[in-house]
């Protein structure tokens, strides 16, 4: 009897030792923004960034979660070298950029960016908290997302930064939100 593998967006949220699963959608250095589509079972090209602009780190989703925007939770992943779209790995959350965004004159909605370190990372293995990041890194990441959203006709507003506990709470809420939506 054959079993169908679960969709990438439906993999378990949590892995070993409290780590989260991350599905990379857009690799570090890519000027193409990809997103996984359940309808197609594949990665779709969402947008192309302007010449000279690229994603500063791997960017993806936490499977089996639902954020306030209705999509799986976003995660910025610190890893030694870029991964590839569809790569699944475990990461430990070290913090979150809590943010809101809106399209045009629409309403503001939460769209947090969780920050994780790949469990197998070497270069970033020492990072346990946001304070372990190099100075200015979070400012650069926030500026990237602000500029990225402006180019897409959206506003992006950082509300605050939170630590690993806040990020883990958001991941748990996202898993609960998806489970409730499916009941």
UniProtKB/TrEMBL annotation:
**Which organism is this entry from?**
Methylobacterium terrae
Molecular function via GO: inorganic diphosphate phosphatase activity; magnesium ion binding
Q: Which cofactor does it need?
A: Mg(2+)
User: Sorted alphabetically, which keywords does the UniProt record give?
Assistant: Hydrolase, Magnesium, Metal-binding
Q: Name one GO biological process term.
A: phosphate-containing compound metabolic process
Q: Which Gene3D superfamilies match?
A: Inorganic pyrophosphatase
- EC numbers for this chain: 3.6.1.1
Instruction: Choose one Gene Ontology CC annotation of this protein and give it.
Output: cytoplasm
Query: Which residues does UniProt call coiled coil?
Result: none
- Which top EC class applies here? hydrolase
Descriptive protein name: inorganic diphosphatase
Record keywords: Kinase included? no
């Amino acid at each position: 009897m054959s079993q169908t593998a679960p969709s990438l967006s439906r993999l378990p949220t949590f892995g070993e030792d409290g780590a989260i699963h991350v599905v990379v959608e857009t690799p570090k250095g890519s000027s193409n923004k990809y997103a996984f589509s359940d309808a197609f079972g594949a990665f779709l090209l969402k947008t192309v960034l302007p010449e000279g602009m690229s994603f500063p780190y791997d960017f993806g989703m936490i499977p089996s979660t639902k954020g306030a925007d209705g999509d799986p939770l976003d995660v910025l992943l610190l890893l030694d070298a870029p991964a590839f779209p569809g790569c699944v790995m475990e990461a430990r959350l070290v913090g979150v950029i809590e943010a809101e965004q809106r399209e045009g004159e629409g309403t503001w909605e939460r769209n947090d960016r969780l920050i994780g370190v790949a469990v197998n990372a070497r270069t970033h293995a020492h990072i346990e908290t946001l304070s372990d990041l190099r100075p200015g890194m979070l400012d650069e990441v926030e500026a990237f997302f602000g500029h990225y959203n402006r180019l897409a006709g959206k506003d992006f507003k950082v509300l605050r930064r939170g630590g690993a506990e806040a990020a883990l709470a958001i991941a748990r809420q996202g898993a609960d939100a998806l489970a409730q939506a499916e009941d």
